[in-house]
Amino acid sequence: MVVEPLSTTAAAVVLNGLDDVAAEINLVAGHRNALDGRLVDVAIWLLANDGWKGTGLRKPEQFLAFRCGLSPASARRYVQVAARAEELPESIGALRRGELCLDQLMPIVRRVPAWADSQVLRLSKKLTVGQINAVINKYDFERSGPPAERHAPVIDDQAADEAELIATIDAARADASTENTSTSASASASTVPADTEHARSTMPKDRCWVGVGDDGRWRLHLETSPDVGMVIDAALREARDRAFRSTGSMVSDAEALADVANRSLDAIDDASRRDRFRINLHVRTDGVTADELGATLPDVMARHISCDGLVSPVFTEHGVPVSVGRSHRIVPDRTRRIVLLRDGGCRVPGCGATQHLEVHHVVHWADGGRTDTWNLVALCGHHHRMHHHGKLDVTGNADIAGGLTITNEHGIDVCLDGPRPEPVTGPPPAPVGKYRPPLCERLDMGYVSFIHPERLELIAASALAHSRGQPGVASRS
């Protein structure tokens, strides 16, 4: 394999066979992993310091996405890794050395407890991302975690085997939990057992995310408890059954969810509430139709949606919508829709918020400002509050590209530009470690085991006592 030196124009790599290709992939993968580790270090600094907040952005992932040109989801992963840097030094160190890729690391970051860091890492280097997800999502780390401090399981010669010992410890924990629950119930009906409180505190939080992805497709992501999930599943099954009874054809889950949403909107009786949740499309004079954020809709979709819709014309003068001047202080709905379409989200650079936006007068109404589009700008609630608390200043003409000036409380321009990558003049820093691809062999979950070091101490003590022929009692105070 011949690798020519990098220049400011291009880098050429001559590959003479499959061996060269494999070696080049491993080299590039190691460099990429190490560079991801450097971005994690940047995210660690952002979490530990506040100096970057003068830019008007409130989350580290927003700053990272804006400066690196990343999608919000990609930037969020670096921050998630950085948040666990102290708990997972071995796994994150492997990323820095180039030995583990970010996709392999993310399942570890999301679920693996600190005590299992090195154990999981040894296995993860040999597994594909899918296999790592399978192991970590199915493994019960709580069962293999530290033994309860208040329990003193008896370890006799029948408990030398590791599996039997762990079962004994867990049985003791369960018995003690039952006893504590009964005692608490007799003392006070409102007292919650400690184990129940622990379960509640460790239960994952419900999450729901909606938005448009980088490919223009609208997405819904939902993570919730099984009981809520069963309710949603029952509603989808009812919608599918309803569609089948009325049309005689099966519908998908997406179509069933749309039916549930339509019935919910149809049930709104109050006209003012119904207007708040109206779906607005923008039809230009050339016939192009766009949604509220300016994304163009296919003709067939636009025709379908607008077939049973109300048309509200917008008049323009010299290409600018005719506004209402000083006749209205509250921004009319029509003008508000024009501003939201023009801005496409919060106008503070790098913010990225597209929902729950507020329309702000650049020159305040009380100071003689007009309710015209040039004097109106879309801001998210956070940045709108920052402005009215003197932390952010907005001036200029909002209708002109680049006509707005946004400064912080010190008068410094907020994030005038986004990514500014340095030109490539040489190879990236060589990773300390060496990337080795996964084995891609069959994964047998039955042989996967992670055990807390304190449990290993109990196992070792039991095995030693058993080898001496003397049953012992292990207790922890």
Which descriptors apply to this entry?
single chain, mainly alpha, two-stranded antiparallel ribbon, 16 helices, globular, disordered C terminus
Can you describe this structure?
- This protein is mainly α.
- It folds into four domains: 2-145, no CATH class; 149-183 and 193-198 and 444-477, no CATH class; 217-306, no CATH class; 325-408, no CATH class.
- It has helices spanning 18-48, 60-68, 72-83, 89-96, 102-111, 117-124, 129-138, 162-187, 194-202, 226-247, 253-266, 271-276, 299-306, 333-343, 381-388, 453-467, and strands at 2-3, 13-14, 154-155, 207-212, 218-223, 282-283, 289-290, 316-317, 320-321, 357-361, 376-380, 392-396, 404-408, 472-473.
- Helix 10 crosses helix 11.
- The chain is globular, with a radius of gyration of 30 Å.
- Pfam families: HNH (PF01844).
- InterPro entries: HNH, HNH_nuc.
- This is HNH nuclease domain-containing protein.
- Residues 174-202 are annotated as: Disordered.
